[in-house]
Amino acid sequence: MKFKITSVLFLACVFCMNAQDVTEVWTNYGGFWNSSSTSISPVQPDNSNELLAFRFGGTVFSTGVNDTKLTNNGVTFTALTMRALPIATLPTTGSSSYFIGLGQLADGIDNGVDNSSTQPFQAITNGTQVASFLTDGIQGLDLGTNVTNIPSGTTARFNMSSAGITAANIGDGIPDILVSQATMPVASNIDQLRFVDSAGNTVGNIVTLDISQEPIVGSRIADFYEFNSTQPSTGFINTPRDIYFFAVDLADFGITTANVANARALLYSPGGSSDPSFIAFNEPSLGVATQLNVVLQPSNQNCDGTLPTQIQVQLEDQNGNAVAQTGLNITASLESGPGSLAGTTTQATDGTGVATFNDLNFTIGGNHIIRFSFAGLDDALTTVIGNATGCNDILWTGDVNSDWSNTGNWSPATIPNGNNAVNIPDGRPNYPILDQDAGVGDLTMGGSTSIVLNGFLLALNGSLTNVVSGAIIDASATGSELYMSDNSAQNIPSGFVNPDVANFTIENSGGVTVNSTMNIKEVLDIRQGNLITNGVISMVCSFTPRKTAQIDAINGTISGDITVEQCFPARRAFRLVSASTTTSTSIHDNWQEGATLYNDSNVPNNYGTHITGLGEVPGSGFTSTPGDGDQYNGLDWQPSGNASMYSFDNSTQSWVAVLETENNSSPNTPILNAGQPYRLMIRGARKDATNGLFDITNNSTPPTDTKLRSTGTVQNGSLSQSVSSTSQDWSLVGNPYHAMVNVKQLIDNSNNVDRFYTIWDPTLGGTLLTANLVEEELL
C-alpha cells in the first residue's frame, strides 16, 4: 500500500508492510470487459458499467455484482460483497473543474453533449444530487460515472451499527476499502480516510489516498458536465481518462484488537483533487448501512386512499443491525397497485437512521406495495397495504353531465376512490366518461349502461358478478388502461368490454378469466396472477399508425391461447420472420389462413400470404398448369414451383427449404414454434380489400399490405437457441417474444458473442446491415 501516516509512532511499521496494488479489473461493460496494468484493454468504456472483480496482489476478488458472469467467463475468484459507502451529500460549488463525469455515450450523443437543463440529468440544486453519482449502479459500483475535484472543507461521515468493525478481518489480506479514481489523480490535496470514536477522536491513524502512485488498470471515454447539466467547452467532451484503484486493509488504519471496539464511524475528507466513481467497503468488515428495512407500516388504507399510520424505514447493516446515520434521502415509489403514489415521497433519515413518511397516499384505491430506495443500498418493500373496508357504496346519477370527476354526478357527492362499491343503474341521463384515472370496488352495472375510459386508467378492484349483460366498458381510446386489481378471482363477462382495448393490465393474485373478446392495441401487462384467455385475446397491429401491440414481461402466468399479429407493408420481398406463439395447428392454418386453394376467395382481407415450393416436392403432382398439386403438403400452387420459405441450419451454415406447412406426407403437423426463424417471401396479402385476390401467376402483381397471425401459447421466460460455435459463422436467431427486444442487453448478457449484429432490411432489396451495439430495440 502507498499512503502517508501522520503519526511518527507508526511510520516504521508502515514501511515494513508489503505494498500491494490493484492491477487488474473486470466489469460488465459490453457484457464483459477486462483490463490490467500489464495489458491495457484497447476497448475504452463509454457508458455505465459496474465493477465485477479486481486483482489485489495475487488474488482476484469479486464484488458480488455478478459472480455468475465471472464464472461463465472462466475467472477464478474469491467472493466478496463490496458496496459503495452511502454518501449523503457533497458541496454544490467548487473549482472551475468540479464536474460530473459520465461515459461519453451516457447522454446518447457520440462526441457531443446534451446542453439542456434536464438531460442527461436534471440541473443540480442540492448536495444529495451530487453525491448520488458516487452511489449509482448495482451496489453503487458504477465506474461510468464520477465526480471530479471534490472540494475540501467537508467531511462525509459513515456511522456504524453496534457491530462496528469485524475484528477477525483485520490484516487478513482481503481489502476492506476500495477507492476508485476515474479521471486524473494528482499527488497534492489528497483525500483522507479515518475511523473515529464516539467523541470524534481518531482511532488508529489516518490513511491518505495518494492514488497518483497506483498503476493504471484501464481507460475510459468521458464527458464532463457542469452542475447545470451543460458543457460549453469541447476540451471536456469525449476525452480519454485512465482508471486507477486504491485498496486498504483495516490494519492500514492502525486498527488492532486493542482499539477496534472504539471505532464508531468512518470519515471521508476530500482534499480537493480526487475524482472517484465510488468509495466501496467490504460488507462483512464494517457495520455501515447496506440496506433499508420497513419497521412500521399500516396493513390497510383509508377509504380516501390516505394511510392511517405513518411508515418508518430504518437503515441497517448487512446483518440487520440498526445504523444511526442522519441525512440520507430515502425515496418512496409505487411498486405495485393501480394509480400513483402521492404525498412527500422523499424523506431524510434522522439521528437514529429512520426516515418517517407521514403523508403518503394512493390516488386510486386497491392493493398496493411501496418500494423505498437509496442508491447503492438494498431496497425495502412494504407488505401489501390492502383495500379499505367499510367504505360507502356510491351511486352514479349522471344528473349533471358525463364527467366522472364531477361530484354532482354521484350520490353521495363523492368521487369513487377504488375502495368504494359503485352502482351504475339503467335509466340515467348520462353515463360516465373518465377525465382522470379512476377505480371502483365491487361493480354493479345495468344492461344499458357504459363506462368510457377516454385515454385514462380504470382499476376494477372487486367483483363483476353484478354486471348485467349489455353493459359496456370502452377502453379503445389511445392510452386507455383496463386494470384488474384484487385478491380474489375476477371474471370478465362475455361482451362486457368493447373489443378494441388499448391496454390491459392484470395484478390479481387470484387470477382473471376473460370471456369478452379483446383486440389489444398497445400493451398486455401481466404483473401478478393467472390470465385465463379462453382464446378470445388478440394482440393486433395496424398500418396507420404503424404500430404493433406488445406483451410486457410476464410476472404471472397465461393459461390458454393468444392470437398475435405482425404487419407487413406492401412490398414484395424476402423477410426474416419468427412466430411469437407456439401453435398446436399448422403453419398453413396460421400464416396461410387455412386456405383450401391458392386462389381461395374465402380468406379474410389483408391477412396471410402464399407459401410455395411444390416444384421441389417429389410426388406432389405439380406442373405449371394452374392448380396442379395445389395444397399438397399445405403449399400453394405457383407457376415456377419454387420454395418461398426457408429455415437456416446454424451448424451447417445452409438454407433449408420449408416444403411442408400441412401434414399431407408426414405424421407430424408442421407447427410454428415461438422464436423459430425463417426467411419468407411475402408477396402481399392473399386477398386485398380493394384489389381482390392476389394474382400469384404474375410476378408483377402489385403487393398489398398484409398481416401474418398465429394462435397459440406465448413464450414466457428465457428460451435457449442453438447457434454455431465456429468463429465468424452466421447464426439466425428469432425473437420468441411478442415484444421489442433490447439487442444491447441481449448481447450484454451473453458469452463469447460479437459486439456487432446484423439485420435484414427488405426495403433495400434484402440488404444485410451491420450495426455497432447501441441501445437498440428491435421487434
Structure description:
Strands 28, 31, 34, 36, 38, 40, 43, 45, 47 and 53 form a 10-stranded mixed sheet that branches. This protein folds into 5 domains: 8-285, no CATH class; 291-381, Sandwich (Immunoglobulin-like), CATH 2.60.40; 394-547; 561-739, no CATH class; 741-778, no CATH class. It is built from 5 helices and 57 strands. The chain is globular and about 95 Å long. Strand 1 and strand 2 (33-36) form a beta hairpin.
Write the layout of secondary structure elements.
Layout: H1 8-16, E1 22-27, E2 33-36, E3 51-56, E4 59-62, H2 67-72, E5 82-84, E6 100-103, H3 127-131, E7 145-147, E8 156-159, E9 177-181, E10 192-196, E11 202-208, E12 218-225, E13 239-248, E14 265-269, E15 279-282, E16 291-296, E17 311-316, E18 329-336, E19 341-342, E20 346-348, E21 354-357, E22 361-362, E23 369-373, E24 380-381, E25 394-396, E26 410-411, E27 422-424, E28 438-440, E29 443-445, E30 450-452, E31 457-460, E32 466-467, E33 472-474, E34 481-486, E35 490-492, E36 500-508, E37 512-514, E38 518-528, E39 530-532, E40 537-539, E41 541-542, E42 547-548, E43 550-551, E44 557-559, E45 562-568, E46 573-578, E47 581-582, H4 587-591, E48 645-649, E49 654-657, E50 677-682, E51 687-688, E52 692-693, E53 706-714, E54 741-742, H5 743-748, E55 756-761, E56 767-772, E57 777-778
Parallel strand pairs: 25-27, 27-29, 28-31, 29-32, 30-33, 31-34, 34-36, 35-37, 36-38, 37-39, 38-40, 38-43, 39-44, 40-45
Antiparallel strand pairs: 1-2, 1-3, 3-4, 5-15, 6-7, 6-12, 8-14, 9-13, 9-15, 10-11, 10-14, 12-13, 16-17, 17-21, 18-20, 18-23, 19-22, 23-24, 25-26, 41-42, 45-53, 46-50, 47-53, 48-49, 48-50, 51-52, 54-57, 55-56
